[in-house]
Amino acid sequence: VQLQGGGGLVQAWDSLRLSCAASGFNFSNYIMGWFRQAPGKEREFVAAISWSGYPTQYADSVKGRFTISRDNAKNTVYLQMNSLKHEDTAVYYCAAGRFFDYGLGSESGYDDWGQGTLVTVSS
User: Fold this and answer.
1) Closest Cα partner for 56 from 46, 48, 67?
2) Beta strands at 8-11 and 56-58: parallel, antiparallel or unpaired
3) What is the distance between the alpha carbons of residues 88 and 81, in angstroms, rounded to a whole number?
4) Integer Cα distance of 97 and 110 in angstroms
5) Share of the chain above pLDDT 90, in %
6) Rounded Cα–Cα distance for residues 5 and 16 (Å)
7) Which of the 8 DSSP states describes residue 72?
8) How far apart are CA 47 and CA 33, in angstroms?
9) Per-residue pLDDT tens for 24-50?
10) Dihedral sign (CA 45, 51, 57, 61)
11) In whole angstroms, what is the distance from residue 100 CA to residue 32 CA?
């Protein structure tokens, strides 16, 4: 189970931090990822972080603006989003997985998902 928080309505160029608190599994053994789904579009990969916190991986569209991090003591993964753009508007999902046949950006490797949190960026 993963409980998400931190979404909301912000203006372009603002910052926002999403959090995802996990329970029911050994968090420190899982790779954690963030995905998003914009209105009318398919869900897409945003960022991923390994068990130890390094390495990380980002979609090109968010590289340099978003930072994924984790606190294994708190069973929580974060997504710090800076310089937000209107096109970042989406429902954001955290996800957990251990085995990735097709890379960290593929949804198929993730088997536990958060409920999603809406981020709306006004232009």
Assistant:
1) 48
2) unpaired
3) 9
4) 4
5) 89
6) 11
7) T
8) 6
9) 999 999 999 999 999 999 999 999 999
10) positive
11) 12
